[in-house]
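Help!! Second protein's tokens look totally different from the first
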Amino acid sequence: MREGARQQLSRRQFVSRALGTLGGALFSSPLLGLLSCGVPPPLTNRNTRRVLADLHVHSMINEWNKQTALGVRYPGVAGIAGKMFNASGMDWKKCYDAGVDLLCVTHFNVFDEWLSMPTDPDPEAARKTYMMMDQLEAHLRDKVSQYATLAMNADEMKTLLSVSKDTSEWRIPVVHTVEGGHALGGDLSVVEEFAKRGTAIMTVTHFFNKGIASSANSFPYFPDANSPWPHQGLSEFGKRVISEMEEHGIIVDITHATTTSVDQILQHTTKPVLATHTSSRSLGDHPYSLVDEHIEEIAAGGGLIGILIDPYLLSNYSSASEAEEHGTLRDVVRTIEYLVKLVGHKCVAIGSDFGGFITPPKDMKRLSQIGKLREMMRREFQSETFVDDILANNAIEFLQENWGAKSK
């Protein structure tokens, strides 16, 4: 389908047509599973410096899609969706071998949020999120335990990060995060349950306004994906959600919020906030991107800005297909440079959004290829320490200081 045609579809038309197309391929084989258990792999010459602390990665989204009601009923749909639309991703062993330091794995699947669009909120949302958490924990325990392990709180994360990467005891710490307050299902008590399950971060809003805050359009083929009332901002329930998150030590993530929502979230929060996977509107004029004033306000409040690795949202390509053809890691470095000049390098980090149905740079398709970005940044900034901070140290320090820090 041509890009111009895609931009004319409403979100419901898109979902309807996409499911119709995928339904014709239900016989397709499901995606292959990830790595199996075994003895710890032999040590490699992995980089023992800080490599990457990713604030936002979708390592399990294809697996979660298969476990939705739609995926269970039509197994081929999830497999086809992953193959057709999920152009970026990660491999646990390759990330381990690359020396990746930390993965904040976010809980969201395509079908649950899109297919519950008419239901605001979905009363089953929390149960579905717990199911995703269970799946990730089982996967870490039963299939990739030689490469990664769950950190339930900041102290556990710190302990795991203290293990030397040149020993067989090293494992990548993995942290639960949630993308979208719609996962609460309209129930404030779920915030405390998420905290007990080890959730470090929650994005306040996501693709659609689910009664918490208005959301910005982040898809070129969803022209109406944002709230029909973009100036609505943060609802009264949304204010209570934020207060509850701060009470239970879950970090507020403002990514995907409209400008009005960000304004009001920053007014309401009392603790440092995150933008886990975002971009600068000065460089890429998208509703999804942050304006300079908000970047500066987040930084001034002790917050952190995570840059996503998606050229389409980082720059002004005329279409997603143009970004796919021409977008490179130069778009990422350009954005990092801009933010460093604006707020300083200690306020900048990485939230790749890999595995999350984005358009990755043509020179980096998998998270384990992070060395390519490191080398480009090293040449640009002429400082290994500077690069270490942006790629990993800033995110690690922010989580250690703010995850679990409750309101007084």
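Here's the second one for comparison:
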Amino acid sequence: MFPGIGTVVNVATVLLGALLGRLVGDRLPERTRELVTDGLGLVTLLIAATSAMAVLDPDLAAEVGDSAPMLIVLGAVLLGGIAGSLLRLESRVEGLGAWLQRRLAGSQDSAERQRFVEGFVVASLVFCTGPLTILGSLDDGLGNGADQLFLKATLDGFAAIAFAASFGWGVAASALTVVVVQGALTVVGVLLGDVVPAPHLAAVTATGGLLLVGVALRLLRIRDVAVADLLPALLVAPALVTLVAALR
């Protein structure tokens, strides 16, 4: 199989799931759709918790010391949030969603447009911030197989059904984000020639878990956390691991 096959399959399952979700969603009452969204929020919170536990990874502690991992994640979130806020990533992602809505669905009322944008943003964040996205795409590019992305594709397909039932066609548009993010990581894997060190991956996984908590809070309608503004934290975390390890 060629590098990138995992992303191709992932995009196909997202599109298929979104199509099925739209067919089902139109037949569900509003209360049921809201309950589905709440369920997704709870499951996302569970996934976030398991990912965030990577902050206790022994490889990370051995690399930077027992007390540093929590501070590294904290520093990554703060520094990444500042960078993302200055770059206005959240508004740019929402703007991309609005542009896609106009191109794909034409002019609609503001409520429907907001629903499309919210579906695009939330689905993009859920599909592209988990550890399987990073490690799976890199392994695919390194020629180690796409098994992890195939697993992710299955999970994303079922999630897309539920998301699309609540948010509509914006979920299908998130396939574009999957192509860009996973495709770029696969190319990095092709060029890298080696796996990401375990401590660095643990830091990225733990930081990604915290970002997923923000997504869960949005799904549960507790607080609209600007998760896209926090995405640079995923790049800051491994850099901080390298810095702290060099200073020890």
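Reply: Different proteins will give different token patterns, so don't panic. The longest helix spans residues 30-52.
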